[in-house]
Design brief:
This protein is an alpha+beta fold. It folds into three domains: 268 residues, Beta-galactosidase, Chain A, domain 5 (Distorted Sandwich), CATH 2.70.98.10; 201 residues, TIM Barrel; 176 residues, TIM Barrel, CATH 3.20.20. The chain is built from twelve helices and 39 strands. Strands 1, 7, 8, 9, 10, 13, 14, 16, 17, 21 and 22 form an eleven-stranded antiparallel sheet that branches. It has an eight-stranded antiparallel sheet with strand order 2-3-4-5-12-19-18-15, with no helix packed on it. A hairpin with a 4-residue loop joins strand 18 and strand 19. The longest helix is centred in the middle third of the chain and has 17 residues. The radius of gyration is 25 Å and the shape is globular. The two termini are 32 Å apart. 50% of the residues are buried.
Length: 679
């Protein structure tokens, strides 16, 4: 929805056909602090640079392309300004971290030409960063264009910046802990990648509106630069396109402080408005599921004595969810295909037929009667062809059952996914594989979103492509994993205490994350097991606020919540949809504190987390409106410590208003959560 102010300032800088050429063009942000400069060198190479408040952020960095079936487009170029404008609008999210988003930028459209071919470069400069994309017209190439390299560079001006990055092109996709290093140590990284400069400025490099194109990773270079590298298809080609098309936006989000960076809406703003029309059927909420029991070995996906997906077990969960006023129930292992080696046997999954111990029709009816949303899981194990052959029929069935939410999964322990289509097999019969973040899989993920939207189904995608803001255009693309989440605390060496203090500045700069917080049984493996959960229980509550997801999972078993109902009360109270979200303080890898206002309410919820260091925080309630509030604080006890005493928690209530302050101590690996309810 677009609101009141939308206007253009300064349109048409040069008329089409004007012969004037310029070797240097520049555009600044509305507040005139961020500047993007485009220059052509003596060889006709086009380069850009970025500065903020007079400080250089990006040194001269190349633009251009190489093709497998056409001459490269990198040298012998000229630039011509076609159009410039300023846009200031406010639009409304149907759900999200904040209801209203201001979209304010200065834009230039620049033509790049080698004398025969032309393509446009569209540049948008915001107060909090820049985005640019390449726009190819139909005349650029007369057949399918094969991109072998995109030459975009990000030459960081401050070579001594500290970088938080995630190594790309590994078998478990995005599911690793982040590396903190010097810039020179970056090999090849997923985006978002976040830097902290020696002047305490924050920079996040990412992309927006990734559709029908290969995902961008960043490869480090000897001179401290970061080069865009498109993920290749099975034959080495990066992108195949015909006709006119736009690349994704290349984005730089800039913050003079950690909270400025976390406040950025730029990736969302670079996406197109909602294409789905009325999406009032999408309801954010808190869900539980037969999931954690499987990861800790109490239940199984496969049929047998431990099978989790039974009619009786589903009803037990639905009863618990309904009794405590939560919103949804996730069931995994409900369909045929889980027996045997389900990770390897991708073609075994049947997405319309339930196992003999799970009555799908009865559970759909029972959930509806209990006012609980049924969330079905579709695991593919990377069998993309098998899934696409069944997708429309399966989604039709789910629509008939009244299912509005679907969790999809692409687990697989190989570097790519089989196309499983006869016309894509090699002449010797070998199956073709694709990376899960190359163009082929980007298009598959998009197909699932579009087909689901036709049937009023929203998606929570696991083993996904990274977020690039498409939830604005397709609001049913609600949340996704794409992170080393809570499950790694169940069966691996676990996540370090600092892990979740890095995520808001890295993975979550891209969008919502289904991390699956809220585990109360922190020592389920025993006190001496080294892979135990490395948080206090108060931090598990805080994660419900800090790690935003519109479908937020309360991950633990019902009995563990029953044993600690006084703590479970916070999970019952906290919503998953927000009017406002305010990062109050933090630093990447150190700590994070968020205050979020409940949508259509005067109530607020605050969450704070720290790394392995104990920390004190002075909370100022000046974000509240006038009036009195009851604050219920869930904090680490004085003797709390994730290693020695993770359960020590204090719950206290106090009257507060917008003049109040409160000192809070966080234990090592700890945190705090507060519900602030208007009187």
């Amino acid at each position: 929805m677009t609101l009141n102010k939308f206007f253009f300032i300064a349109v048409i800088a040069l008329l089409a056909g004007c012969a004037d050429q310029s070797s240097t063009l520049s555009v600044s942000s509305p507040d005139e602090q961020v500047s993007f400069v485009l220059q052509v060198n003596q060889q006709g190479g086009v380069h850009y640079s970025v500065s903020k408040s007079g400080e250089q952020i990006i040194n001269q960095s190349q633009l251009g392309f190489r093709f497998a079936n056409a001459e490269s487009f990198a040298n012998g170029l000229s630039v011509r300004l076609i159009e410039e404008r300023t846009v200031d609008e406010t639009w409304e999210q149907p759900w999200g971290e904040r209801q209203f988003v201001r979209n304010h930028y200065s834009e230039q459209l620049v033509e790049l030409s080698d004398g025969i071919r032309t393509l446009d470069l569209r540049i948008r400069v915001f107060d909090d960063g820049i985005g640019f994309r390449y726009e190819f017209d139909e005349q650029f190439h007369d057949s399918e264009l094969l991109i072998s390299d995109e030459l975009t560079q990000f030459n960081i001006a401050d070579r001594n910046s500290q970088v938080h990055w995630l190594k790309a092109l590994q078998k478990d996709r995005y599911e690793y802990e982040y590396t903190r290093s010097d810039l020179d140590a970056v090999s090849v990284s997923h985006t978002p990648l976040t830097l902290k400069t020696t002047s305490d400025r924050y920079i996040t490099i990412h992309e927006a509106a990734l559709i029908d194109y290969s995902s961008m990773v960043l490869r480090g270079s000897a001179n401290g630069g970061l080069n865009a590298e498109l993920v290749a298809a099975y034959d080495g080609i990066k992108v195949r396109r015909t006709g006119a098309f736009n690349t994704p936006w290349r984005t730089l989000q800039l913050g003079d402080s950690a909270t400025q960076l976390l406040s950025s809406n730029m990736v969302l703003n670079l996406n197109e408005p909602n294409k789905l029309g009325d999406v009032s059927w999408i309801k954010p909420g808190i869900y539980m599921g037969i999931w954690w029991g499987m990861h800790i070995g109490e239940n199984s996906w496969a049929t047998g004595p431990k099978l989790g997906a039974t009619t009786s077990e589903a009803k037990r969960y639905i009863d618990f969810i309904s009794e405590h006023g939560l919103d949804g129930f996730l069931v995994e292992g409900w369909n045929h295909g889980w027996d045997g080696d389900w990770i390897a046997n991708a073609n075994a999954f049947d997405f319309t037929h339930a196992n003999p111990f799970f009555d799908l029709l009865e559970i759909a009816r029972y959930a509806e009667a209990k006012n609980v949303e049924l969330i079905l899981h579709n695991e593919t194990s990377g069998g993309v062809g098998n899934y696409e052959r069944q997708m429309e029929q399966a989604y039709d069935l789910y629509q008939e059952l009244g299912v509005h939410y679907l969790k999809t999964g692409y687990v697989g322990f190989f570097n790519g996914y089989p196309r499983e289509l006869s016309d894509k097999m090699m002449s010797d019969g070998r199956v073709v594989y694709e990376w899960n973040h190359g163009q082929f899989m980007v298009n598959h993920y998009q197909k699932s979103i579009v087909e689901a939207a036709k049937r009023e189904i929203a998606i929570n995608m696991h083993e996904p492509i990274k977020p690039t803001g498409l939830r604005r255009t397709y609001p049913n693309f609600m949340t996704r994993e794409g992170v080393r989440g809570q499950e790694y605390n169940a069966w691996s060496d676990g996540n370090q205490p600092a892990h979740t203090t890095i995520l808001p500045f890295t993975r979550m700069m891209a969008g919502p994350v289904d991390f699956t917080p809220g585990v109360f049984d922190l020592l389920f493996k025993g006190e001496e097991d080294p892979s135990r959960i490395r948080t206090t229980i108060a931090k598990q509550l805080a994660l419900m606020v800090v790690l935003y997801s519109p479908l937020q999972m309360a991950a633990d078993l019902p009995r563990n919540y029953d044993e600690k109902l006084e703590l479970f009360q916070f999970i019952k109270d906290v919503p998953a949809d927000w009017q406002k979200s305010l990062p109050l303080d933090g630093d990447v890898g150190e700590f994070v504190v968020y205050a979020r206002q409940q949508r259509d309410s005067d109530n607020w919820f605050v969450g704070g987390i720290t790394n392995e260091q104990a920390r004190s925080f002075e909370l100022n309630f000046d974000f509240l409106d006038e009036g009195d509030y009851l604050a219920t604080l869930y904090r680490d006890g004085a003797d709390a410590d994730w290693q020695s005493n993770p359960y020590s928690t204090v719950i206290e209530s106090l009257e507060v208003n917008n003049q109040s302050t409160l000192g809070i101590d966080m234990a090592p690996g700890g945190g705090f959560a507060i519900s602030v309810i208007k009187r």
